[in-house]
Design brief:
Four copies of one chain form a homotetramer. Chain A is of the alpha/beta class and 348 residues long. Chain A contains eight helices and 13 strands. In chain A, 57% of the residues are buried. Chains A, B, C, D: Belongs to the cyclic amide hydrolase (CyAH) family.
Chain lengths: 348, 348, 348, 348
């Protein structure tokens, strides 16, 4: 993408027949904003994609934005390249190949109430939706799930004010402080939904605090414009006939280049088969015994330092700077580590 | 270093006897500033190191600052770690080992006149000093030289004003615009001094413009506070008895992790033998066919993006974020590439 | 505006009948981007306004964007507030009031050819269009003109490449370096069109260089997406029946609070009558004998420092942080100064 | 100052005899850093000033740094100019002038224990030291005090760890989160010491929370390198014979230019008599009914936006950009407002 509003390649794929716009279910990409509260590149990209699809889908942009899952992460630090990966789903009656292939499952919770936000109730709602997404993807074994992208609401100033007026207790009264609770509750919802964590272990005190409870395939993000949690589940299904499959691994730290190959191997493939990577970048104050300055830098946010570093490490292995890399890993991996998933061209 | 003023590890090495302060000839390191015109962390580090050495050397800080070569690069983006590498030279009458070992050669030009600045005369003065440094290091074959750090003057506003008042022609009237000429003329001086480029090929029109003329071992930086060019030449000498040797290679682009191993092999060693790395980071608008946003980002300077990325790639190979990495590669490598040198623990 | 995409107040004015969308001729505002090459808030605001007007105008957004002049300046540093001022023009047969009132004149040049760009030909094309805008506003005396907003093209990389392939000479081969030529040629076009500068004084060597040639009412900006120069001329016309009139003055430096009152007085009004202000902010290295750090700061662009300061000074006089304030004053005022215009509620 | 290390003007004043270095008691100034955790310009300035004074005072820099109060605020946004104001005190037996004149009082608390930090005990220790400073300045009436600069410790990670190991309760376990408690407890200490707030109103729950308790003359800052609270009290004393006096006022918001004149009048002088200004800048999300973007900007810290704006407003009144302006106003003024003090040339 030459800019967040650039849809020329999308239009080209549609014009050439390579992409059937009616089959699009999700768009996941990076935009060149700062990734912060005043990053409007994500909104511009969503609006531009919806407008580009309007003439093809015969529906208004508002309907398109609610039907297709748009997930953008702002911030293309270092070598990272602005791009979008468009996911389609077709009901082609092809005979499934010998090995399980990439399948997507979509689901959505109902609205999360302010007094549910960041509590076990929030976790359970996400877990239920994850199970629906599993069924939607026709995946029986949760071990075949390799990446679950969830986006959901924050506590907005307005929601906080009305909840307090109604005498409701909230996990925090600070809109910014609600981010870890949002990401954390959704990640634990994935973990519970996939059986990685038992539901009864999730107590009010553990959410966003006890980082020894985690999923290994969740990637969660939160935004004030949302009211429900949207799940896009990626796994390998025996009934799928895609040319791709997916695997995952864990980055032990920001320098763990070996995790890229591990993610490919987890999909029964090699580094050269990778077509796209989803990962999270985690900042740290110490790295392999050395002090870093990510957290003490008042000019550049620590998430930007982390994305620049981890993005370059991954791209140095795959050769491709078009990586989906975002920040905030609460309950999405063991403490200090970060999740990585790779979609590969299937070998058999 | 816990801060640019932190000399506690230096003092510890001296107190333990591991380091004889009288043998220090150069200090090369990274500080946690922004690397720009308002980066005062370099000045603070030099002042702090000189003050820490005062009681040991029995000389005033001003004398110490002029006798020891202090080279700091500001900017520890991504994983890069603030640190200093202290180089010593002793006349120990040890029997030299079988293989050539790390030797340093030091030399200095006279003051560069404003009307010489950025011209072939500037190049020749540096080339002469490089030859002196070769002799100082007792290196006969220029092929044994792997890294030549040169720092020298910029055209300051004051120098420009007085030169114009005297009717002298300058290569540029813009202090900031004098940086490429400074770095370029010094790099070509290294190239001529080591025989990589023939002196007669260096014309006024080629400096900072014809990037097909280059050294492969130069690393140059410029500062308004200097009047002479200072050379620190690193190579392997048969008469040296250091435990270390040095090699170099070229980063083909910002993702070229293989260059780290190539630099080690050039020193007859392997990646695990590397003790420290010197490299340059080069920004680009396209990388392996993908657009990057380093140059279009108005919030973060492109050199900071490049250092964050290249630093992480190198550290992902060596496991050590304490890398000396700076920007600006004019005439220091083939266009689009970047130099890298590695000091290794010698194997034999 | 709560965000660059926020059109709720525009919609409210239309819904209430306070604003007839068919009468809108121009929108001038500030958005909360960084004001640099990667500021996409301007594009998002234009797109959002055009989409908001689509159902009211019965035309597609592309037509609306070409018919209505959208002028956004990115960067709301310090106290500056994101906002839009919407200008309408109606042919109401009201009896004109006793005093001349605010009138707008619109005009456009043809495409500027690359080899015309930044040359006297560019200036003449703008001057001709300014004269058309004068007629369009029904203003006879150029002294009644107080603000001329012009936006026009830059030399894009593509235009430079094709011009060079065709053997054409350009004023610069650097896209970024073409900004001063763009702003300068358009400002001189205003000066020539209004008789402030004689056409024969504009030589190829004077554009973007001889700052003693200037308009006192021009405000120009350039963007790579444009091919023509668009003029929005603001003045007082005896045939206008607006409730407003306009005046202008000059900020002698960034601290010149007195210029705000001078601009109001120039419109026969007082500070308390001001409804909106258009101004430019100019950075400097010295101010009233003191050194500033605007230009040496590598973290924050000098234009952002200047806008933060000048915006606060103006707002401290008017009490209103919703000011249109942008940067780059070439040929738009005497060297070191900056233009300011004020629209006031007319007293008689 | 041309840089944080520039002491040339200090040396010039000493060389000319205008300044007796033995009489220096305090240095208060601005440096051109970012004002954040990685701003090392303050340390460089203190070190440089102490080194410049060494030969004149015949004592080591460490002694000088502990005897003279150095107060630096990093961040010269907008028009603000890097500078230092040097305060001297002499026991000259001059006959005091008719009106009270500027007098300084200095005092220091003992070390603040971690479990006292941010509690009423902290407040009482500062209040006691403020009373000592009053006596030191020979000021009987607290109404004659116009500015009390206090700097003191933060809770460091080390202090937090050892206090927790000892089972002590702390007001916060977050080093960064200790800033408001530090500034707040010191400001309330000033308020109690001067009788602005009754000691019994200061409860554990009120510190850094109940902003209706405040001093109107306190200016407090905190740093991890300190263990005690240092007080520099400025007021007018009948026994002083300085050429200057001091007054103060309150900025109602970031645009309140009238406060500058009010501060001068409070010293029985006019704006043109002002020689230096001390003030605080307070960011806000709304200003005179308009939204600002200071807090939502992820690229530039809100304190930098606020300093750029308020500094320009004050300088537009005094004509002098060399203003001491810092951030963080807890308990130092009514909520939403900010303190300002002006030293003036005394008229009678």
């Amino acid at each position: 993408m030459a800019a967040p509003s650039d849809t020329s390649e999308l239009k080209g794929l549609i014009a050439s027949g390579a992409l059937d716009p009616r089959e699009i279910v999700a768009v996941i990409g990076k935009t060149e904003g700062n990734g912060g509260a005043n990053d409007f590149t994500r909104a511009l990209a969503t609006l531009s994609f919806a407008l580009a699809l309007e003439p093809h889908l015969g529906r208004a942009k508002e309907a398109i934005m609610s039907e297709i899952a748009f997930v953008w992460s702002g911030g293309t630090e270092g070598v990272l390249s602005p791009h979008a990966t468009v996911f389609t789903r077709s009901n082609a009656s092809t005979i499934p190949p010998a090995s399980p292939r990439l399948a997507l499952g979509l689901a959505m919770t109902r609205d999360i109430a302010p007094d549910e936000f960041g509590t076990p109730a929030h976790v359970i709602l996400v877990a239920d939706a994850v199970r629906q997404a599993l069924a939607d993807a026709d995946i029986k074994d949760p071990a075949d799930v390799h990446y679950v992208q969830v986006k959901g609401p924050l506590l907005t100033p307005a929601a906080i004010a009305s909840a307090k007026a109604a005498g409701q207790a909230l996990v925090t009264d600070d809109p910014n402080g609600s981010k870890p609770f949002a990401r954390g509750a959704m990640a634990l919802g994935v973990a519970v939904g996939l059986g990685e964590v038992q539901a009864e272990k999730v107590t009010p005190a553990s959410i966003a605090r006890d980082m020894n409870l985690y999923s290994k395939v969740a990637s969660t993000s939160a935004g004030g414009e949302l009211t429900k949690c949207e799940i896009i589940l990626f796994g390998n299904s025996p009934s799928a006939s895609s040319d791709y499959s997916i695997g995952h691994a864990t980055l032990k730290d920001a320098l763990d280049a070996s995790a890229v190959g591990a993610a490919a191997r987890s999909a029964n493939a090699a580094v050269e088969d990778i077509v796209t990577v989803f990962a999270k970048a985690e900042a740290s104050t110490m790295l392999r015994g050395r002090r870093t300055t990510m957290y003490s830098d008042a000019d550049i946010n620590y998430e930007r330092h982390a994305r620049a570093a981890v993005g370059a490490v991954i791209a140095s292995v795959t050769g491709d700077p078009a990586i989906f890399l975002s920040g905030g890993t609460e309950h999405q991996c063991p403490p200090g580590e970060a999740p990585i998933a790779a979609i590969v061209r299937a070998r058999s």
